[in-house]
Amino acid sequence: MPTPHISAETGQVAPLVLMPGDPRRAEKIAKDFLDDAALVSDVRGIQCFTGTYDGTPMSVMASGMGLPSLSIYATELYSVYGVERIVRVGTCGALLEEVQVRDVVIASAAHTNSSVPSLLVPYATVALAPSPYLLRAAMNAAETHEGLRWHVGPVYASDHFYGGDPATTQKLIALGTKAVEMEAAGLYAVALAQGKEALTVLTVSDHLTSESPELTSAEREDCYRSMVAIAASALRS
Ligand code: HPA
């Protein structure tokens, strides 16, 4: 049964979902990684494709930007479409010196300034973490990618792309926060609320605290492929 934001019929979405932020990226992932991909939803230009990844049924659907957008799609996928696992694949801005442009960051926790997760348990700080099983599988998969620089640790899911407080960023850096993006904490909160599994795997597109080289399109393509392969491996584990 379609939902307010997804027009697929029940059964047209696979239990395993790759979730980029950008709808065009969803289409590209479907084209590059899925066999027999079919468009099953296209509400507001947020396309959902379902096909198979190495024989395993898998869907790709974008989240849009920010926790509120992602949390709408994730909630409907988990609660109406029987989705069991969502792995977000996206970009992030590096915060730590040791994290470089093109590296992969696996989010083992998500800090946030968003009010979305605060609704889970009023007056308590809920720990926003991925499924340990997906996390372990992603780390195992990352290890098999020869030459890939990858990190695992907390990320900051911010509601502000522009105008964030520099003192907040410094404190998060002091806590070992690897990178900033805008969705991971929403995904982890929704998965917790729904009793389902989630993980976030990112590539570093820019560096917030040091000079970074411009990426060639071939370099971008390279790290994008590693990120999706790691995410799909975790989904299938
Ligand atoms: N801020 C938030 N999200 C991001 C960034 C950033 O600098 N880079 C990539 N995603």
Describe the 3D structure.
It is a single chain. By secondary structure, the chain is of the alpha/beta class. The chain has one domain: Nucleoside phosphorylase domain (Rossmann fold). It contains six helices and nine strands, in the order βαβββαββαβαβαβα. The chain has helices at 23-33, 67-80, 132-143, 166-174, 184-194, 217-236, and strands at 16-19, 35-43, 46-53, 56-61, 85-94, 104-112, 150-157, 179-181, 197-207. It has a five-stranded mixed beta barrel with strand order 5-8-7-6-9, surrounded by four helices. α3 links the parallel β6 (104-112) and β7. The structure holds hypoxanthine. Hypoxanthine (HPA) binds at residues 91-93, 158, 161, 180-182, 205-206, 208.
CATH class: Alpha Beta
Write down how many β-strands occur, each being a DSSP E stretch of 2 or more residues.
9
Mass-distribution shape: globular
Helix content: 25-40%
Bound molecules: hypoxanthine
Rounded radius of gyration (Å): 17 Å
Per DSSP, the total helix count is 6
Query: How many domains?
Result: 1
- Terminal CA distance reads 28 Å
Topology-level CATH name: Rossmann fold
Task: For this entry, give a set of tags.
single chain; Rossmann fold; 5-stranded mixed barrel; 237 residues; alpha/beta; 9 strands; 6 helices; globular; binds hypoxanthine
